[in-house]
Design brief:
Number of domains: 2
Number of helices: 6
Number of strands: 2
Largest sheet: 2 strands, antiparallel
Radius of gyration: 32 Å
Shape: elongated
Distance between the termini: 67 Å
């Protein structure tokens, strides 16, 4: 399981990443879904509570490890499952307990440090704005793309045309059959040379 200090540092790093993700999602919901301006004063309590909640999870895990260690004391038979610990597991369970407690203490220290909470919120805010920027950029690239600037245009054109023939045009034809306005007079139909059509559209024009 490695050294206790290293395991605690790794646990704090993982928990901090989880806290940033939670705060980032909170910022996105408040600013986009609820149309609220970013306000550190409102976000900071959420960040504090998130860190405390993660610390409580670690404390619960520590309590479980302690109960498992007490239950394993003096047992030398073969275990019945993965979590059926024996006396030989006492050392690892004790170390695990210290690691959980260490992570919980560090998370509570960070939660009580206004500077650390501000840093967490700023990192989460930057991540949230990064997500928004990336989404806007993707949307602008799609909506503003011209055929001559799209490197995949020629490759995807055949697929788009096939989709138009097999899906969109039959759908349009079915709609015209259901619509009274879609019926053409028979005289008009005889005046036009025959050409492959679907839903009143000349398919030969699509090859241009």
């Amino acid at each position: 399981m490695g050294k206790t200090a290293e395991a605690i540092a790794e646990g704090v790093s993982i928990a901090s990443a989880a806290a940033r993700l939670a705060v980032r999602n909170h910022i996105l919901v408040e600013t986009i879904a609820h149309d609220e301006a970013f306000d550190f004063v409102r976000v900071a309590p959420f960040a504090h509570d998130t860190l405390v909640s993660l610390a409580e999870e670690q404390e619960e895990a520590a309590a479980l490890a302690r109960r498992q260690r007490k239950k394993a004391f003096g047992k030398f038979t073969d275990p019945d499952g993965t979590h059926d610990y024996r006396d030989r597991d006492m050392r690892n369970l004790r170390r695990r307990y210290r690691q959980y407690i260490g992570v919980a203490k560090e998370l509570r220290r960070v939660a009580d440090d206004p500077h650390a909470v501000r840093t967490l919120v700023e990192q989460a805010r930057d991540a949230a704005w990064g997500d928004v920027e990336a989404n806007l950029e993707r949307r602008l690239n799609v909506e503003g793309m011209r055929p001559d600037l799209d490197p995949d245009y020629d490759m995807m054109r055949a697929a788009r045309m096939q989709s138009l023939r097999l899906v969109d045009l039959p759908r349009l034809a079915a709609h015209r059959r259901r619509s009274p306005e879609g019926d053409e007079p028979e005289s008009a139909a005889h005046d036009v040379p025959s050409a492959p059509r679907a839903g009143g559209i000349d398919l030969s024009e699509l090859d241009a």
